[in-house]
Amino acid sequence: MDIIFLGGLEIETIIGIYDWERTTKQTVVLDIEMAFDINKAAETDDIAFALDYKTVSKRIISFVESSQFFLVEKLIVEISNILLTEFMISWVKITLNKKGAIRGASNVGIVIERAILLPIK
Ligand SMILES: Nc1nc2c(c(=O)[nH]1)N=C([C@H](O)[C@@H](O)CO)CN2
Known about the structure:
Belongs to the DHNA family. Pathway: Cofactor biosynthesis; tetrahydrofolate biosynthesis; 2-amino-4-hydroxy-6-hydroxymethyl-7,8-dihydropteridine diphosphate from 7,8-dihydroneopterin triphosphate: step 3/4. Catalyzes the conversion of 7,8-dihydroneopterin to 6-hydroxymethyl-7,8-dihydropterin. InterPro entries: Dihydroneopterin_aldolase, FolB_dom, GTP-CH-I_C/QueF. The protein has helices spanning 39-44, 53-66, 72-86; strands spanning 3-13, 26-35, 91-97, 109-115. By secondary structure, the chain is an alpha+beta fold. It has a single domain, classed as GTP Cyclohydrolase I, domain 2 (2-Layer Sandwich). The protein has a four-stranded antiparallel beta sheet, covered by helices on one side. Helix 2 (53-66) runs antiparallel to helix 3. It binds the ligand Nc1nc2c(c(=O)[nH]1)N=C([C@H](O)[C@@H](O)CO)CN2. Residues 16-18, 21, 71-73, 98, 101-102 line the site of the ligand Nc1nc2c(c(=O)[nH]1)N=C([C@H](O)[C@@H](O)CO)CN2.
């Protein structure tokens, strides 16, 4: 399995359950790993057959910047749904770091893995 990754993607968004978090944007940092067969892109040297990580990053930045969720659980699952349904990705691993959410902790967040389930024939 080939993996295309996008690491340390910092995005400002409204996220959180407390009153001040509903009006003050905070930074979330995403690390994303996406399973994608790179062979056709390698054979052809043509971006048309590649998973264009620029396109992926623009879609995710746009979505997260305009979102206003309460929980990081909701945000990370919505991101995984976009990746699995809009791009030819069969598996994704996402780490969402809500830096600074906990005093004394440098990192806090969630890691999920999601896959497209194929029917057994
Ligand atoms: N499991 C979660 N716990 C907490 C969340 C969350 O999104 N998922 N959020 C908060 C607050 O918004 C926090 O980030 C502020 O410090 C608390 N716990």
